[in-house]
Amino acid sequence: MMKRPLVLVGFSYLLTLAAAVYFGPYLSLVFACLSLAGFLITMLVPKARAAAVFPAALIAGSLAFGSFYAYHQSLIKPAEQLAGQDAVIDATVCELPYQAYNRFYYIVEVNDISLKDAPRPLKIRISSQNALLVEPYSHIKGKVHLFLPQGGEGFSSRSYYASKGITLFSYLYEYENVQVSPPTHKPPYYYALKLRSALLKSVRSMLPPNEADLVNGVLFGDQTSLSPQVTSDFRAIGISHILSVSGLHMTTMAELLLMLLLFFRIPKKPAAAMAGAGVVCFMAITCFVPSVTRSGVMCLIYLSGMLLSRHPDSLNSLSISVLLIGLANPYAAADVGLLLSFSATLGLILFSGQTAGYLNRKYDKIKKIRPFVRGVNGILGTTVWAVLFTLPIVILSFGSVSLAAPIANLLELVPSTLMMNFAAIAAVVNLVAPQSFLAMPFALVSGLLAKYMLACAHWLAQLPFASVSASYSFVRIWLAGTILLVAVTVLLMKSKKLFRVTALLSLILLLTGIFSYQLSMRNVTRLAVLDGAESVVLTRNGHAAVIGCGGFRSDTVAEYLRSQGIKKLDVLQPLSLTAEEAKNTAELMAAFTPEKLVIQNDGMIDTFIRREASKTKNVEVYDSFAETKLWKNTDVQARFDGTAGTVRVTTGNVSVLVCPSGAKLTGLSQEWLASDFAVAAAVPEHGELLRPMITILSAEKEELGQDVLQLKKLNPIITGGEGNIVLQFREDGTMELRRE
């Protein structure tokens, strides 16, 4: 018999849902049938039926695959069929509005829609150029254009928003009649959102902007105001989990609340009940995101044990929490935050305490420094296993491996916990008594800790190889090899020394892969067409040039550069005069301080670009033509006509024509139009003039229109949310085209 049946069922259910997200709904239906057949077969085998492990896992898997398919068919697919249409909607704002990328966003529940066969419930995100005077549960009535989030099946932006119940994006036709009315009812969640808003403002009123944004991001999971630089730094060094409200945050808040209640001499059981109410409130304030819900349910089970004088089993609590979340929304497994929270918690439950105990027995010899040694050992035990258990998810989700993660967690984990405690007290005290100055000491400490965390993260992110791209084949080989080594170790384990040998071999594999990759990429010029951005990045021997800065945000370019170990740019060359490209250009200049800026004359009108250009050594301003030599083997020529410039990159004997949105092809020479490769965000106007071997389109398939014949003539390769397209040119004249 199984000792923990709930653990097997809960874990199997969540992992199966993660597989279902990866494979998509139709393969999930196939796997649901196969799992059900496997269950029936194992029930016919006496030994398998008696052990119960295989039947339980197979039936849990079959139910998970089946529920995912049913959820997609009943709610997701009908909503997706509305994409591309205009509709008049009457909707209720169900979350706090936020601002990002110079637009305003509103998550709404649709009450009425002018389209037939729209599913219910239907939650969408509305964006607008101008702010609407709304609050939670206000009503918005107006005309919108519906479209899908980026990405297709698998772990994409579309699946991530589905995990939050959001199936469609839309933008508001603001020139038409838009009606906004106040809330007609105010459920409990209304007051939780108002409290969240008040606490966010409370923090901002006490701390400088950068520190306040970090505190709000860590304490409340509000990442909308965080600068791209901070987000990129935290991701590069492997501590982005600190910015996602999860088990660490929930446990910290629950322990702080319980400690304060016990300090005021409230009996243990009433204190546990009050702490449980506080946990529910904190879950509401952080908007019930899956990672918070998982940790909140675990905390509630633990506090229930205190009320009932029982000791809850941590593994059972973890499995119950993820099972409940998966049953409520099968797409919850598409939330990487939930998977990271689950895997880190599993690692801590299984090995953290044992590791800390072993280190204490070995190194805790001097009484005077015993508290310090035990504290360091506890952090080490937590850090090592959290990093190891989340590593596969980080590699597959973020496409990078942070070699700085162990030291970064060691340096940032305790300060982040202390910052949360002091900031929470400061925010509440300042909210209750804003003019009393009682909150200032707590705010001062939390602000200093935030300043330390920002400086430490930025310094670590600048270290060589702080982050290594997992798109390199050796990283996946290393991950597969490490998993194989661990499996063999578990099977053959006769001594714990085998684990040390396994860890050493894994480290040797990784370092060998990095070293051999660097050797193989020596003197190789790479041209990367970035997925989700109108940008081409050229790299060679640790140097880089960015051609085009279009798209909604600069993060895509910045993250790619950091994954390649780039700290500074040789050349930055924007290609259009749009406000979005100007903003992205200024942000990239601030983050990477280019040696040379090549920009069309009218582009210098932007105030932010002019300010950052003053820090750049060489600024080349041109009217209609510019030429830049890169690394002796690459030539970049730009022609500007109207509102955008067209660029021809020549390296070796291969030419690549870059056509940003708004570029005109009619004035280009035949030599340019006959370039070997063409790059565009979508099929350019007069695209029939192009004669490339292959056209690389950094777009979604749905955005390319219906002109299949013209597309076919261009021989397209589409990024489509599935990764960057890279051309690699070697000195021997060979070329490789691959998707990362």
TrEMBL record:
Q: Where in the cell is it found?
A: Cell membrane
The UniProt record lists the keyword Transmembrane helix? yes
PROSITE patterns from the xrefs?
PROKAR_LIPOPROTEIN
One Pfam short name: Competence
How this chain sits in the membrane, per its record, is: Multi-pass membrane protein
Q: Which residues form the DUF4131 domain?
A: 24-167
The transmembrane residues are 52-71, 242-264, 276-303, 323-351, 372-401, 413-433, 440-461, 473-492, 499-519
ComEC/Rec2-related protein domain ranges (all copies): 219-492
Sorted alphabetically, which keywords does the UniProt record give?
A: Cell membrane, Membrane, Transmembrane, Transmembrane helix
PANTHER family given in the database record: DNA INTERNALIZATION/COMPETENCE PROTEIN COMEC/REC2, RECOMBINATION PROTEIN 2
Question: Any idea what this protein is called?
Answer: ComEC/Rec2 family competence protein
What species is given as this protein's source? Caproiciproducens faecalis
